[in-house]
Structure formats: C-alpha cells, structure tokens
Amino acid sequence: MTEAPLLPDLSTLPNVEEIAQLTIWLAEAGLSAMELSNASGGKLRIAVAQAPAAAPQPVPEAPETRTATAPYFGRLALCHPLRQEPFAPVGARVCKGDTIALLTLDTLQLPVTAPADGTVVEVLAQEDMLLGYGAGILTIRP
Questions:
Q1: Domain range for 79
Q2: Higher model confidence: residue 6 or residue 98?
Q3: Domain tally, the chain
Q4: Which of 19, 49, 88, 100 is the least buried, fewest Cβ under 10 Å from its Cβ?
Q5: Residue 105, number of CB atoms within 10 A of its CB
C-alpha cells in the first residue's frame, strides 16, 4: 500500500478536493495565498479569505497568563540535550527571551524563547512531541 503524496501532482490542474485541502493548510499556517506553476508556464493562485479583524479588547488590569508557542514546527526538547535538565520546569522563574525549549528539525536545533517575564505554571506539551507552528508549549504567569 502506497501513501498518498503530500502535495498534488502539479503537472495538471488540481481538482476541487485538492484545492480545498490546500486552502485548509494555508489557513492553518496563517498564510493568505500561494501560487502554483508548472513547467509549461501555467499558474494557479489560491487565496484564503481572512476573517475580519476583531475589535480591540480592553487591556486587563491584572496580568494574565501567557502561552509560549512554537515559532516553527519540529520535535520538542524540554530538557537541555547535554545536561538532561529541564529548561523551564513548572515553578521556574523565566525572563522574556530566555530559552525555554528547543525544536529539532532534522539535525538543526532551534531555541524557543519565553514571550514574557514570569513563572512557569503549566507545561502543555511533552518531550519529543512533533509540534506544528503555533502549538502551545508552556504557560507563564507574569
């Protein structure tokens, strides 16, 4: 049994189901459009309707928790690879910009940084989990 290819064969025009799947992937990735072309010069532009911008919300008086999210996709490392110590366990104090995890893409390890100063109150993801863009990693309370 062979697996279906990730992207449709672009030597012909994609069918309606393939275009629908591409628009879902674009919206999930936060992209507004993409353009496909083939060797003979044919082009297809797929645009995703964006939701209208929400009205600005009032700033709360008490600081709320902030969620550190994956800035790209990859395998999650919550522990330092050489010392096996967690970067930011529950209860740890972190500063904005501190490394709180690593995302591994093949042999490349990229840092994930804290979005704010505060205390780690919850770890949302597990070690070695495959995360997509925007997935929650941990929660910080200022």
A1: 66-141
A2: 98
A3: 2
A4: 49
A5: 11
In eight-state DSSP terms, residue 33 is E
DSSP string, 40-81: TS-EEEEE-PPPPPPPPPPPPSSPPPEEEE-SS-EEEE-B-T
The Cα–Cα gap between 19 and 93 comes to 46
DSSP 8-state symbol, 102: E
Nearest to 141 by CA among 92, 71, 76: 92
How far is residue 122's CA from residue 18's CA, in Å, rounded to a whole number? 38
User: What Å distances lie between residue 62 and 18, 59, 65, 139, CA to CA?
Assistant: 46, 9, 10, 16
| pLDDT for res 61 | 44
56, part of any domain: no
Does the pLDDT at position 120 exceed 60?
yes
Residues 75 and 33 in one domain: no
Do 121 and 89 share a structural domain? yes
Q: What span, in angstroms and rounded, lies between the C-alpha atoms of 46 and 22?
A: 8
32 with 94, same domain: the answer is no
119 in the same domain as 73: yes
Q: Does residue 5 lie in a domain region?
A: no
Over the stretch 13-29, which tens digit does the pLDDT of each residue have? 666 677 777 777 777 77
